[in-house]
Design a protein that fits this description.
Order of helices and strands: EHHEE
GO molecular function, one term: cytokine activity
Subcellular location: Secreted, Extracellular space, Extracellular matrix
Largest sheet: 3 strands, mixed
Shape: elongated
Structural class: alpha+beta
Distance between the termini: 23 Å
Number of strands: 3
Number of domains: 2
Oligomer: single chain
Strand order of the largest sheet: 1-3-2
InterPro entries: Wnt (IPR005817), Wnt_CS (IPR018161)
Function: Ligand for members of the frizzled family of seven transmembrane receptors.
Strand content: 15-25%
Family: Belongs to the Wnt family.
């Protein structure tokens, strides 16, 4: 998807002096995914009746669960895997059943 770019918001959260690694790579853009899913899945659900309210609630609960499963993934860089520099990014789990 062309309009879905990397999420760089994590890179500004923790000063590099506090950690022994650097933010880098391409974090999964969960904000874009939430926006897209609201436009796609929530379309037509206005919350006018109990069924629509339940669907909207369940959709939001699903998005909250996906968000809670994001994990930090890191890769070491250096001579022979010495991990001179460690680069980390946020990643969603695989969607395999």
């Amino acid at each position: 998807i062309q309009s879905c770019s990397c999420d760089y918001t994590h890179q500004a959260r923790v000063p590099s002096a506090v950690r022994d690694w650097e933010w880098g790579g391409c974090s999964d853009n969960i904000g874009y995914g939430f926006k897209f899913s609201r436009e796609f899945v929530d379309t037509g659900e206005r919350g006018r009746n109990l069924r629509e309210k339940m669907n909207l609630h369940n959709n939001e609960a699903g998005r909250a669960h996906v968000s809670s499963e994001m994990r930090q993934e890191c890769k070491c860089h250096g001579m022979s895997g010495s991990c001179t520099v460690k680069t980390c990014w946020m990643r969603l789990p695989n969607f395999r059943v």
